Amino acid sequence: MIHGIGCDILEISRIRRIVSGTHGPSFLRKVLTEREQELYEVMGSETRKVEYAAGRFAAKESVSKALGCGICGKLGLKDIEIVPDSAGKPLCRITERSRLELGLNASFVIHLSISHSEEHVVAYAVVEV
What we know:
Order of helices and strands: EHHHHEEHEE
Structural class: alpha+beta
Cofactor: Mg(2+)
Oligomer: single chain
Number of helices: 5
Domain 4'-phosphopantetheinyl transferase: 4-124
Pfam family, one: ACPS
Binding site for Mg(2+): 8, 61
GO molecular function: holo-[acyl-carrier-protein] synthase activity
Largest sheet: 3 strands, antiparallel
Low-confidence stretches: none
Distance between the termini: 5 Å
């Protein structure tokens, strides 16, 4: 059964300004989990790194919308982790604390899609319980 859907779109240039500025490192620490930060570091070009960070930010916003709570005390940005599977498909997990706070059963699934253009990133999430 579908619990919720969420979608988010943002301008990549917004994230580029943040990441390249003085607050870039703290922004990345605030938004990305340790594993996501490790993946960010091996992205290669600065363009690819910015797309990655923007995609993760949009995806986390879409997941929070699909869960019906937004980013709040029950679900922070670092409570959501998005890592690729062996084929590159984004796999999404939330912390056990957040799962319990949100009243989700242990078998829930988050389906996620992230797409980029030169200027925008869009993410779409579906939570299935």
